[in-house]
DNA sequence: GTGGGGTACTAAAACGCTATAGAAGAGGTA
DNA sequence: TACCTCTTCTATAGCGTTTTAGTACCCCAC
């Protein structure tokens, strides 16, 4: 069953030493073109494949990068974004015959434990840090472990780790400008947990641009990103006397939940309430009305992350911050001029 | 940086041979309890962790199992189910210090290539086959590769591979009985691609039970599982003169898309049309009205799959078919007695 | 006090590959 | 002929672990 051919088998058959076969198979000098061709032919004939463990033992790379998502198992649901990221990463990595190992854990502490384990077992060559927090503890951990890493979403200024990011403050500004142009005066924001950097950035951008446009300073309500809290926050906002005429949601899941609440309360969307989602996925298109949202090419983003990570693995001192396309506003049926 | 301790380091410090350290760390006889305790203490002190590649080289397991999803990158969206499966699997596997490698590929051919690659590189110890097809080509491939595998969703009769399955024919029967009791006479089925075993089983069960209950024999419409085709199929069904009063969807994504179509056509749900989803996820709860659906503990299912796979790895001749809980019908707002 | 049988350990090989030092031979130059 | 260089290859060590065969020692029985 497991009599797969080794380099020694090939060497015996061709009549050269294992070292020569290794040279030939890895395309490095040390064998004549003639011998190389013979070796490659025999290798193909015997269906030889490198044994990764043997290579890794010699200090080579594991051929795996890690992506850890810290999620409460009960609030799964917003991971569509990461499925696409994963897809984009895999397409880049598989060209280098690497793979992504995605793991779901309960919280940041478990995530950090996993990085320690992975580093000590040489399981992965590098990791992607997502959902960055203010003063994120993971950054120091991966640095001290010597584990190459790239952050997804940490903006501009050269930080401690290389990063791939998009300007979501600018994106939020676009939303506010769009709503202001429609004559919305009261804009609310159903946000994620304030510990996340991107949540804080968006809230700040909303607030700031509301001031610029002379609107009622937009208020952000924190949630845990779950549909339940998104619904609850919406209900609270819409129950006020001076309720907002537009709500921006940090995720499409919460936006859809909020939309359902509005309908249930008899508040017509978009006539009495405009809804904007900061996130795009199939979800925004299947609810009715379809949601106006920010959209971007998540697959391409994943590909860029993978490239940056390969770069970080090759050159551990790299700290480059790669800015990607700013999410574009896609207008659908959920936004309109208020009554 | 990479000066992680090896067994030899521990041996030197304790003053024994590497072999003795290996015995001690793996809990096998050959060392006195006293020495064992000393070795374990030093190992903990030095923060030793096994080097997986070195172990794998000796023929041990890779500590990774594979889960491949064949999906067109554009029709991503129904993978919530698998995210939960993944979570359940990981919790079982991490107790055995194993992990899951999930990979998305374009089609079954690419999936098979991946199995060949994984087997030849010793990358995974086993794989889970999902989305089984009629006369599925993957089964013969993994068998010929000697790659331990478990199928998810292949029913009962001892097949060529061990399996974990649920009785979805029974579940469909429950749905038909429920709708018949509400006096629905015309039930349609927006199904997935007919090449899938579970799709065929459900369609057959619907047809059969419709006959039993004396209803108009329920018709199944095939789709590619995308929201677009789910919407199109719904539109076609609802445009007929004798349109159905209830539609059963094979996925929650299509059910939600179908719901939106009905609303858009001015067909009230549930008064003029009842909607049932064969799948549960957060999606069924955030649309309005919330969807009546079949629900099951997907996390637990993933855990069972992982256990079965570990079993299959330990005993490659195993062919056990483990039946899991039949999905339960959860009634929500999208179903009612027809007008 | 010799042999038998256990226990506690060591030495060395093996897993499959890569890397490095060096050997053998060809060819050129002085 | 002696010396050097270049190419092409071989031999060998090494990566970290497990496993096997073997050794040293002790205890006990005869």
Structure, explained:
The structure is a homodimer of 339-residue chains. Chain A is of the alpha/beta class and 339 residues long. Chain A folds into three domains: 7-49, Orthogonal Bundle (434 Repressor (Amino-terminal Domain)); 64-165 and 298-323, Rossmann fold (3-Layer(aba) Sandwich); 168-295, Response regulator (Rossmann fold). Helices cover 45% and strands 17% of the residues of chain A. Chain A has 13 helices and twelve strands. In chain A, strands 2-1-3-4-5-11 form a six-stranded parallel β-sheet, with helices on both faces. In chain A, strands 7-6-8-9-10-12 form a six-stranded mixed β-sheet, sandwiched between helices. In chain A, helix 6 (108-121) packs parallel to helix 7. Chains A and B meet through helix 4, helix 5, strand 2, helix 6 and helix 11 of A and helix 4, helix 5, strand 2, helix 6 and helix 11 of B. Chain A binds a DNA duplex (30 and 30 nucleotides) through helix 2 and helix 4.
